[in-house]
Amino acid sequence: MSELTEFRKEKDEFFARHPQSPLTPEQRRDFHGLNYFEENAALRLEVKVERFPEQTPMLMQTSTGGTQEYIRYGRFRFQADGQDAELTIYQANYGFFLPFVDSLAGKETYPAGRYLEPEPLPGDRFLVDFNVAYNPYCAYNEMWSCPITPAENRLKAPIRAGERLFHV
Fold first, then answer.
1. Which residues on adjacent β-strands are paired with residue 18?
2. Is residue 62 classed as helix, strand or coil in its secondary structure?
3. Kind of pairing, strands 95-100 and 114-116?
4. What is the DSSP string of 89-154?
5. Residue of higher predicted confidence among 141 and 121
6. 37 φ, ψ to 5°?
7. Of 26, 14, 44, 29, which Cα lies nearest the Cα of 130?
8. Looking at residue 19, what DSSP letter applies?
9. Whole-angstrom Cα distance, residue 90 to residue 69?
10. Which residues have a Cβ under 8 Å from the Cβ of 57 and sit 6 or more positions away?
């Protein structure tokens, strides 16, 4: 079993049984696992990040009308499905945060976007593995408050990796 397959199995177990699962009791009754794209090695990237000269704070709107503060850390460029793309990485108290919306939003992926926590590497590089891209908890239950992906992280390219739309 691959590391990604094991990770997904553990996540499905958490969603099905853990008291802190974002699923409602009704959703858990019929839950048979999350929907995922097949693993895509081409979307497991080590990227060079161009740090912004000024690490400016910004407020991201949340799905419940509030805001959360992040620092605009830097931007990286990459290719997705043969198209040039770029995304901004944000810094939070807990580490780095990469929300994004791809061209499949609303059809195959969650309309408000998916999230990643890129792993910092030496030399202003990051591991950005779209295979572990996940839906925010508000995709499963509107009681959760989730940051809304900023306009600068809306891609025209599809990202066929990570979690797909949730269906019970």
1. none
2. strand
3. antiparallel
4. EEEETTEEEEEEB-TTBTTTB-TT-EEE-PEEETTTEEEEEGGG-B--GGGT-TTS--BPPPGGGB
5. 121
6. -75, 155
7. 44
8. T
9. 10
10. 69, 70, 71, 72
Record the tokens describing residue 17, joined without a space. 């049984």
| Structure tokens given for 23 | 């699923």
CA–CA dist 144, 32 (Å, integer): 22
The letter for the amino acid at 118 is P
What tens digit of pLDDT does each residue of 90-114 get? 999 889 999 999 999 999 999 999 9
User: Is pLDDT above 60 for 168?
Assistant: no
Q: Name the amino acid, one letter, at 73.
A: Y
Kindly state the greatest CA–CA separation across the chain: 50
Please give the share of the chain, as a percent, with pLDDT higher than 70: 99
- Tell me which H or E stretch contains 70: strand 67-80
**For residues 91 and 69, what is the distance between their CA atoms, to the nearest angstrom?**
9
Q: Is pLDDT at 141 greater than 70 in this prediction?
A: yes
The reported pTM is 0.92
